[in-house]
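sorry for the late reply, my laptop died twice this morning and i had to redo everyting from scratch. anyway the thing you sent over, i finally got around to it. pasting the sequence first so we're on the same page, its 307 residues, then the predicted structure underneath. double check i copied it right bc i was rushing
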Amino acid sequence: MTTTPLRTSTTTDHLDLLESHAIFILREVVAECERPVLLFSGGKDSAVLLHLAVKAFAPQQLPFPVMHIDTGQNFPEVIDFRDTTVERVGARLVVAKVQDTIDQGKVQDPGVMGSRNRLQTVTLLDALNDNNFDAAFGGARRDEDKARAKERILSFRDTFGQWDPRKQRPELWQIYQGKVNPGESVRAFPLSDWTELDVWQYIEREQMALPEIYFAHDRDVVMRDGMYLAIGPFVEPRSDETIERLSVRFRTVGDANCTGAVISRAATLEAIINEVALANVSERGATRADDKFSETAMEDRKREGYF
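ok and here's the structure:
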């Protein structure tokens, strides 16, 4: 009779392998580039990425700053988490504001209730250029969107920060060509091969803190375009909409006026993991209005320079 060996602390599981690979990518990019930066929105994926970066370079401080592209339409819980987390890890925070881009006349103000999500691209490219960042780490994953599934782990951009999927370098057998040529920059995605379930299982294992909106709570919402949007400064009910008080949580974090909540009672990490394990639609596909306005929404924005 065969028996299954007990798992010990020295056993390597899939989360160990994902963590090790992500840390390898972080270190490789830092070794190849002069001025990297880590993009941090305060969402779960960027929180995991920052956690991995701290591990990768411990016991030293992070060898690069953390940057947030602030649309001004964020959930307040996420901004509070951003500031608390950056202070806790001792990182330098760079905040690039879409409002500044609007004030400079580079993009048009969509109004208080209009989405600023797509305007982030101009702000991001300006911030990268102004700070001479030649590499930017992001928490994007391939399972989020079909355009992101095309993305290499090291995504090289031209002088204008634009992405051409036909001009990317091969990454066979996890061998990367990280040299940044003159006029180029690179976006690095250490979480590319992770799934939403992997992220939550890692958060549970590492006992990481997250913004409260990821956990089930009662909130006033309206149904709009097939999603529950939270009533607040950037979402007001229309004449044909009814406000409902429901138990919801958010699977992804974006602007308050384009990020939908899901009905949920999952108020613990264990309950969220069980819920995600049964989900058959990605978090962006289910709850992000900015990805739904066209079939190629994400790919179009990535070609323009979006992360």
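The domain at 15-197+296-304 is CATH 3.40.50.620 (Rossmann fold).
thats about all i looked at so far, will dig more tmrw
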